[in-house]
Amino acid sequence: MTEPEIGSSFIPALFKPSALLPIAQHRDVLLYLIETFPVTVVVGHTGSGKTTQIPQYLHQAGWTTNGKQIAVTQPRRVAATSVAIRVAEEMRCELGHDVGYSIRFEDMTSQSTRIKFLTDGMLLREALVDPLLTKYSVIMVDEAHERSLSSDMLLGILKKIRKKRLDLRLIISSATLDAESFLNFFTNDLPVTAAAMVPAAGAVPGGDLGKIISLEGKSYQVDVQYLEEPSEDYVETAVQTIYDIHKNESEGDILVFLTGREEIERVVQKVAEYADTLNPNAPGLLPCPFYAGLPTDQQMYVFEPTPDNTRKVIVATNIAEASVTIPGIAYVIDCGFVKLRAYNPTTGIDTLTATSISKASATQRAGRAGRTKPGKCFRLYTEASYNTLPEATVPEIQRSNLAPIVLQLKALGIDNIVRFDFITPPPAELMLRAFELLYSLGAVDDYAKLTRPLGMRMAELAVEPMLGKALLSAPDFGVLSEMLTIAAMLNLQGGCWFWHEGEKKAHETARRKFAADEGDHITLLNVYHAFITKGKKDAKWCRDNYLNFKAMSRAVSVRNQLRKYLEKFGINVQESLGPEVLTAGGIGKPEKIRRCLTAGYFAQSARMQPDGTFRTVDGETVLYAHPTSLMFNRKADWVIFHEIMETGSKVYIRDVTKIEKSWLTEYAPEYYQIEKARQII
Ligand code: CDP
Ligand code: MG
């Protein structure tokens, strides 16, 4: 009876493969490169071990001694949490000790944390407090190919930090072969246009500054099939394809790419109904939804092993394209679309639109089927339409509302943003629009300098600028306690309600209990107060009222954290009991709240038309209240809204509250001064 024997028999299967991962044979070279060069670009297929193994190699090699940490950034919250859980399991430590994660409003780290997974946005936030990110010996920007807004910005900041911190090591990891552009970004100090004029000869990519390493991960043949004719309804075609695979193909799980929650729920429901009709002894079908708004515990189902004699069908958004590893996928169904945020600087409308994917995305999606054995990819479009797809997706920075980014850069002390070293510079109109909005919110002054304290505080608060402005204006209106609650409720991904299919009526009745005439924001406030007083310790109360207990508990924690930010600014929060009408000075609480919301959201206002639709201030865009909004079937005149989303041919607004027209000019005189004012009148 020797120790090692007992030990080895206890190694769960889960931990065995890491030595077999493609990355394992590159371990020494990787460590050598990281030791020797400031920048290392790592390229390898999804699943090759970049995210889970590199931080462990670094930890073992001593990069975490002397209290230093390793940061690994992820563009998505779910990726940050799921890989942290995985690495903690592999290292057999409790989550939050040696291995932790930090995402907005959720910090799972401690003094002893050595490997920290965090969203790229969180690392940017840390730079506000510690501009040189001194606690990290190595920073790995993971999934850099996704070109998320925050990771692009992070690359620019890290380029600056690196020059001041010779000890810092950077790892840029990417699932695609576009590695040279990342390395060139770090090695090239000339503006892109000037550099392009220098003859390329003699320019050794990287030089002494960095190297590229490719982990030629094993991948199997993926047989790609196209439709003969375009599909009228790809959701329906996806369902049929699932049935066909289940009937005709050998075992292996299915991963379906769709664009959003509604499509996903439709497919999940159909597959679940179909699964019920299958012979109980025949192989079963188990549909699992997977999208960002899904509560974390439900997202985790997709990572669990598939039960015996069952085929799992993971129905996902783009979230499953690259940043998370889902074992066992043999079949991919690709609808060819992705929901992309695109901001129109002329109208100021941020829309989430289903857009054709790029060839790079299509390849990446198909690749998910060939990780463990040869697979098949069913593209729900024709080969001819594949050929018309763009090569790569436009980076987020070229199609986003840049106000939050500009605010952050300013707060990081980068004053000349136009000359900031972006890996891809954003279009001038987007920059201009961002400055206009920040100026009208009072975050920057006439010289485009960050105002203090307002602008600086808006940057430090972990909410978007309009909400930040409303929150920071709340003390002036005497509604800080209420705005804190509203801000927390607006930050719940996926909202606070449970939508049970087929129970819409009951759900409506439940919601009516909380509904406020003034609109969605005060309704959210009512929901929160009811939860605090009646449902906080009572999950059943939540179920009876169609409220998501987890989401509501999260609102409580988000609210606490926002309150801490305010207290750090020296703003005292006097908790009030509820939205009851307190008529101090003749104005009731609800009106004060609506005025305060207007002070933040004046740029997102609209007016209801006799037919029940809304029109933007300039009269050019028709907006519809989203079915989840109280204003869906109520009368209103002027309103402000929190979110705007274009689906199909309609532009929907969500979280809508009634306001008075005169408040717009009262709280945003400059914004509504010029031609817009004329149209209002
Ligand atoms: O980052 P990269 O895509 O290169 O790979 P990874 O996320 O480090 O995953 C390496 C391997 O770990 C995968 O091939 C999976 O077998 C396994 N893994 C897993 O089973 N469950 C996770 N949550 C993460 C990884
Ligand atoms: Mg990864």
Characterization of this structure:
Helix content is 39%, strand content 19%. With 681 residues, it is an alpha/beta fold. The protein folds into 3 domains: 12-215, Rossmann fold; 222-396, 3-Layer(aba) Sandwich (Rossmann fold), CATH 3.40.50; 403-673, Sec63 N-terminal domain-like fold, CATH 1.10.3380. The chain has an 8-stranded mixed sheet with strand order 4-3-5-2-6-7-1-8, with helices on both faces. The radius of gyration is 26 Å and the shape is globular. It starts with a helix and ends with a helix. The model is unreliable at 1-16 and 190-205 (pLDDT under 50). Magnesium ion binds next to helix 3. It is an enzyme of class 3 (hydrolase). Residues 238-413 form the Helicase C-terminal domain.
Return residue spans where pLDDT drops below 50 for at least 5 consecutive residues: 1-16, 190-205
Helix and strand composition category: alpha/beta
Alpha carbon gyration radius? 26 Å
Number of domains: 3
**Shape descriptor:** globular
Explain briefly what this protein structure is.
The protein is of the alpha/beta class and 681 residues long. The protein contains 25 helices and 21 strands. The N and C termini lie far apart (90 Å).
Descriptive labels:
RNA helicase; globular; 39% helix; ATP binding; binds cytidine-5'-diphosphate; hydrolase activity; HA2_WH; Sec63 N-terminal domain-like fold; binds magnesium ion; 19% strand; six-stranded parallel β-sheet; 681 residues
